[in-house]
Amino acid sequence: MEQFSTRQNKLSKFVQREMADIFLQLNKSKYHGKLISVTIVRVTKDLGIARIYLSIYPSEFSTEILDDIRLNQKSIRWELGRRIGKNVRIIPELEFFIDDSLDYIDHIDHLLHK
Questions:
Q1: What is the pLDDT of residues 40-77, one digit of tens each?
Q2: Dihedral through CA 93, CA 95, CA 96, CA 102, nearest 10?
Q3: How many CB atoms lie within 10 A of CB 100?
Q4: Inter-residue contact 102 to 55 (CB < 8 Å)
Q5: In what order do the strands lie in the sheet with 35-43?
Q6: Is CATH 3.30.300.20 the right assignment for the domain spanning 6-112?
């Protein structure tokens, strides 16, 4: 299991809070009726890359929304930098992934109730 430093954990939580707020604003303005949650943020040892795992509901739109988020990655990173720039030296590059653990849990639950 990978061990994370205190700095990595602090930056991960900080980025997660800010990204959740950014996506809350995007939900209101761009993705009406869809919910985007930031479930996990993992920052590399050099603090240069933040891997952001998103849970998107309803899940049938997840690929389409993820593609749109990746297209707008630069503006999302700029907004993140505007918010955290005074607290960190380097704004991490952002990588977005789908966190499908809720769908997996739902699938297991469905199988158990058959």
A1: 999 999 999 999 999 988 888 888 999 999 999 999 99
A2: -110
A3: 16
A4: yes
A5: 35-43, 49-57, 93-98
A6: yes
